[in-house]
Amino acid sequence: MDRLFLPVLLGTNRQERNSVFPARWLVGEMEKRADIETRLFDVGDFALPQDDYGQGLKDRFPEWRDAIIRADGLVIVSPEYNHGYPGSLKAVLDLLLREYVHKAVAFVGVSAGPWGGTRVIEAMVTMVRELGLAVTFSDLNFPKVQKTFDSEGKLLDQAYEKRAKDFLDELVWMGTVLKWGRKNMPSKHHPKVT
Ligand SMILES: Cc1cc2nc3c(=O)[nH]c(=O)nc-3n(C[C@H](O)[C@H](O)[C@H](O)COP(=O)(O)O)c2cc1C
After folding, report:
1. What is residue 193's predicted lDDT score, i.e. its pLDDT?
2. What is the mean pLDDT of the segment spanning 89-97?
């Protein structure tokens, strides 16, 4: 089976962010698998202008643009900020549009509270639908993230290994089916095989 290219987007540029720990840990889990190729993107690395927005800027970020063109799906790691997602995450996602269509997306929710970002994930579902992404139904939730990793980013709860496997298995299934569909079922949204 061909490997799927599934980049991971870390969705906050907050200083002292804890979301970096689950993002890095999950990339490590993905790199162990023979069926996945991945790369970590960090919204903090995007020098976004304060006075402009949207697809007109995409050629300023060629690595992100080309990664999503090639991608079979995407993992978004988002903290929950007042039950929503960070503006920096939305600004990066909004750099592209048709490049996402008919590709899979899976969500990792991160929170200090007990719900593991369930509310931010619900908020993202409605938003990514407009991007043409197809949402998996297996989320990965990190409640009380400050107690789940130590200060060096070491995972303290091994139960996440099985959860991450199930989460990635579902994303691979969705990504594989959609890849087959893009190749074999013509659509006005992807006239060329991707
Ligand atoms: C502006 C802001 C709003 C927040 N709102 C919530 C919230 O609604 N629910 C929650 O569980 N934690 C909330 N938190 C705490 C974050 O979930 C916590 O910082 C966690 O570590 C994930 O975010 P981080 O990657 O920025 O650290 C908020 C944090 C900030 C900075």
Report:
1. 53
2. 98
Q: What is the pTM of this model?
A: 0.97
Q: Is the pLDDT of residue 162 over 90?
A: yes
Look at ligand 1, atom 30, and give the residue with the nearest C-alpha. Answer: 81
How far does the centroid of ligand 1 lie from the alpha carbon of residue 166, in Å?
A: 25
Residue 44 Cβ inside 6 Å of ligand 1? The answer reads no
Single-letter code of the amino acid located at 170 = E
pLDDT at 2 (0 to 100):
83
